[in-house]
Amino acid sequence: MVADRVRLEDIIVAGHALKDVVHHTPLQKNYILSERYGCNVYLKREDLQVVRSFKIRGAYNLMRGLSEDELKKGVVCASAGNHAQGVAYSCKAMQVSGKIFMPATTPRQKISQVKLFGGPFVEVLLTGDTFDDSLREALDYCGREGMQFIHPFDQPEIIAGQGTVGLEILNDMREPVDYIFAGIGGGGLMAGIAAYVKGSKPSVKLIGVEATGAPSMRQSIQRGEIVTLGEIDKFVDGAAVKRVGELTYEICKDALDDILVVPEGKVCTTILELYNENAIVAEPAGALPIAALDFYRDEIAGKNVVCVISGGNNDIDRMQEIKERSLIYEGLKHYFLVNFPQRAGALREFLEFVLGPNDDITRFEYVKKTSKDNGPALVGIELKQRDDYEPLIDRMRTRGLQFSYINEDSNLFSLLI
């Protein structure tokens, strides 16, 4: 069986090999979440890892097993973020040359972090617009140069390295673990945790979590074969993968107890709550497991639950978009195209008779810049509470306003917002 290629002893050996390289990250009981869900919620803080994500575990574990000749030739990887940082750090730690292929669209901050961790031992090669473009270039380069490719998730040594997260969880928990929630992108982290946890404590329920816009593992397991998604929502970038790994699929389909799909807006709400309530900076993929707790509230009541915050590499420039997505998901932000009557005072009447006492206009602009007198206006309204929406719609209809609701029209929304 393919899953047998990642054995319990492989993960234990990886744990010994990594102990002087990676942080043994804390497992912290979170009292706010525990009270909210009526259970004991523990957070495995991989956002506090040496490169602010778990990816260093698998990258270093694979590289330390390469032969001397392979290391002399150097290594290659393709990544737009955390995996690149893990490989870069490993290259510097082992003094190995590395070629890091990244999309040309990668934010400057992430490129700078890779160069910082790798120093003179790595070269960043920007190519293509997507991860898939960079992956093709990286594989071609490996073939030409005879170098070792460090896969983001689908190699046994990578999975064994990520499995040390599960090893640390079971070693650190004083009480029996009932549930472990972890995010799924390509599946390396969840497969590694599953290989260790199900091999030593099979009673623990493992819940994988994907974003609604990239449910590649869930769809693959449902269909009984690996599927390649077409278009995906890249917002949860650390878990936005069109196709999961062959090995990770084999492990996850046999070992996981469930896979949840969580809307990106809910992830955004969770990111903001983690920051405001706990001063935790989680990237979208890192917030996935905690965002899933709402959907498992009844099952986890009274249980011991571990959520893996897989990373904290969140760009501050994304915070406005995160807040926007959260407000829309929570039903507090709404966009309309409104055709105001072509007479004096129409806008003033809207403010006086349509807008509620606690409603706030956050955006107003005429769609037709050169013909404002007979064109619709884009109006963004923020509410204090979700229940204020229906009264707002009733007042718009009562005043006879012609309007279109943009939130539910994906084409218009992506065009205008």
List the helices and strands and how they pair.
Blueprint: H1 8-18, E1 27-29, H2 31-37, E2 40-45, H3 55-63, H4 68-73, E3 75-78, H5 82-94, E4 98-102, H6 108-118, E5 122-126, H7 131-145, E6 148-149, H8 156-162, H9 164-172, E7 179-183, H10 188-200, E8 205-211, H11 216-223, H12 246-255, E9 258-262, H13 264-278, H14 284-291, H15 297-300, E10 304-309, H16 319-329, E11 333-339, H17 346-354, E12 360-366, E13 377-382, H18 389-398, E14 402-405, H19 410-416
Parallel strand pairs: 2-10, 3-4, 3-6, 4-5, 7-8, 7-10, 8-9
Antiparallel strand pairs: 1-2, 11-13, 11-14, 12-13
Helix pairs in contact: 1-8, 3-5, 3-8, 5-6, 8-10, 9-10, 10-12, 13-14, 13-16
Can you tell me about this structure?
- By secondary structure, the chain is of the alpha/beta class.
- It has 19 helices and 14 strands.
- It has helices at 8-18, 31-37, 55-63, 68-73, 82-94, 108-118, 131-145, 156-162, 164-172, 188-200, 216-223, 246-255, 264-278, 284-291, 297-300, 319-329, 346-354, 389-398, 410-416; strands spanning 27-29, 40-45, 75-78, 98-102, 122-126, 148-149, 179-183, 205-211, 258-262, 304-309, 333-339, 360-366, 377-382, 402-405.
- The strands form three sheets. A six-stranded mixed β-sheet has the order 1-2-10-7-8-9, sandwiched between helices. A four-stranded parallel β-sheet has the order 5-4-3-6, with helices on both faces. A four-stranded antiparallel β-sheet has the order 12-13-11-14.
- α8 (156-162) packs across α10.
- The longest helix is centred in the first third of the chain and has 15 residues, at 131-145.
- The chain is globular, with a radius of gyration of 24 Å.
- The mean pLDDT is 93.
